Amino acid sequence: MARQRGIRGAQSGSGPHRTYSVRARRRRSATTVRNNRNRFVVGRIVLTLVLVAAGLKLVHIQAFEAAALSERAERQRTTIIDIPAERGSILDRNGSELAFSVETRKLWVNLRQMREDWAEYAREHPESNQNFDTRAAEIAEHIARQVPDLVTERELLDSFHKDASFTYLVDDVEPSVAERISQRFPEIGYEKRAKRVYPGEEVAANIVGYANWRTDSEDVHEHNLHGLSGLEFYRDDDLVGTPGRQIVDTAQGADVVIPGTERDVQPATPGSDLELTIDSDVQYELQRSLAAYVDKVDAKGGSAVILDAHTGEVYALANHRTFNPNEPPSSTEAMGNPAVSSPFEPGSVAKVITATAAIESGLVTPETELSVPGSLPVADHTVHDAWSHGTQNFTVTGILAKSSNVGTLLLADKIGPDRFLSTLEKFGVGQRTNIGLPGESPGYVPPRDQWSGTTYGNLPIGQGLSMTVVQMTSMYQAIANGGVRVEPRVVKAKITPDGRRIPEPAPKSVRVTDPKTADTVKNMLLATTQGGEYAYSGTAPEAALEGYRISGKTGTGQQVDPKTGAYSNRLHNITFAGILPADEPRFVVGIWLDAPDTTIPGGSSAGALFSEVASYLAQRYNIPVTDQESPRVRLVR
């Protein structure tokens, strides 16, 4: 019994040890309770502070930052882009289209999104064997089959696998075809575009020019064609119209429009049409004839222009080198327009200035005779005629028609340099004609205070100054128009989108000489196309046209040899300006040949080319034949 009590006593912790243990446990329990209570209080205080801070931040955002944050989020999600305006057409004088636009589509794909979507599909449907690569191949094969003339399957596959998040696939797709492709393959989107079409191809290309998308634009949403050369460039503001405005949603992190999110803000306003003075049939014929003749005489090139004798309107303006604006131009040189931008020393065709000043001054008449030697010393050099002859009596008409350099300088000596310079300026030499085409050169006339002793031995015979073929032809337009030079022009009117026809401002006109002098000089120029024996023959009998009286003038200007820097005996500017018909002028034709082979028949004169062009004009416009032939005039006594 004693053992059993001892065991129970030990188990129940009897004695002083039990008393100490109970007290210790009570102290620890009290401490734990206090600590827990403190932690709870601290936690509640911290939570309260956090909630208060969050509340204050929320109030601040709602009260002060809500509008700004909303605007920023909207900017990240939406974009304002242009709605392309329909570009105006370019028409010839008869209403035939030389340039117009058709609506197209440009296909694109968001490669990053497409990769993510098809990677996810492949994970969820491993049994399908469908992934980005198989989908890209399917799309590429379908698009290439739909637009075989625009892109190949290989090119499309290369686009799908380029290292980029976004790419364009193909341009110039018909709208209906693009719509069907996008409906079948939602990955493929498209942009509205326009394609410029030039139905005449090379016809008037140097005048009309070329329009395309600006490759230097940083705006990926640039939707308007812009002119890059010719009238497309020069009158771009009239043709381009005013783009509309559209709000679209864009994919996050990319400038890709989400289909179906477009909201119009402002509609686009189409551009105006331009009605030209050009006759596209005449333009075609002039280009064809000029190119064939340049090849025939092995010239470096050439230009020609046809003006209305009274209004100065340009019926045709051609260059030997041209391009097809429906295709990317191979060089900027082909896109140029030498007829307005490349001046040259015209030679004897400029002698009309000297003749006009001489007749107007009253110092001579067409029948006045001058004793003309074969050469004439001028300052430190000697001027010769183009053919060898002793001293002969030339009429003033003969000096012009046979193109005597010596005789012309004798006339210039009678006129004096100041009167000559005044007449030259009235003819517009050294000044832009304001034809309305880009890149026009004013040509060159040396300033009066820089003339040396030999200057006045060169200018009256067409050397030492330069002009374009348009300027040259404009001089003869003044003679054909009773002495009034009218600035040439190529644009006749602007037609607004609402159909209003707004004529171009009237061209400036200048009285060069009085009507009597102009008529006299015009009749003197008839002798240029005379044939027969030496005393009667002018320099261009090949320019004559049966049934019509033709006034004209030849020119042979020496070119500067680039190797020596001096005038060349081998390189020449061959020119001709003629009036059809002389009795009732309708057209003036100017021609320039750049360094033809003068040893080839026809290479030393452009008269034959003029006759070909004049014959076409007479037939196309049913110009009445002349009732009477021109009397043969003796040129050398």
Furnish the topology, listing elements before pairings.
Elements: H1 2-11, H2 16-77, E1 78-83, E2 90-91, E3 97-109, H3 111-124, H4 132-146, H5 153-160, E4 167-173, H6 175-184, E5 188-197, H7 205-208, E6 210-212, E7 226-229, H8 230-234, H9 236-240, E8 244-249, E9 263-266, E10 273-276, H10 280-296, E11 301-308, E12 314-319, H11 332-335, H12 338-341, H13 351-360, E13 369-372, E14 375-378, E15 381-384, E16 392-395, H14 396-401, H15 405-415, H16 417-426, H17 469-480, E17 484-486, E18 491-495, E19 501-503, E20 509-511, H18 515-524, E21 551-560, E22 567-580, E23 587-594, H19 607-620
Parallel strand pairs: 2-10
Antiparallel strand pairs: 1-8, 2-3, 3-4, 3-5, 6-7, 8-9, 10-18, 11-12, 11-23, 13-16, 14-15, 17-20, 18-19, 21-22, 22-23
Helix pairs in contact: 4-5, 10-19, 13-15, 13-16, 13-18
Structure overview:
The chain has about 625 residues and is an alpha+beta fold. It has 3 domains: about 1-80; about 85-275, Penicillin-binding protein 2a (Domain 2), CATH 3.90.1310; about 280-620, DD-peptidase/beta-lactamase superfamily (Beta-lactamase), CATH 3.40.710. Strands 2, 3, 4, 5, 10, 18 and 19 form a 7-stranded mixed β-sheet that branches. A hairpin with a 2-residue loop joins β14 and β15. α13 crosses α15 (about 405-415) and α13 packs across α16. The longest helix is centred in the first third of the chain and has 62 residues, at about 15-75. The termini are far apart.
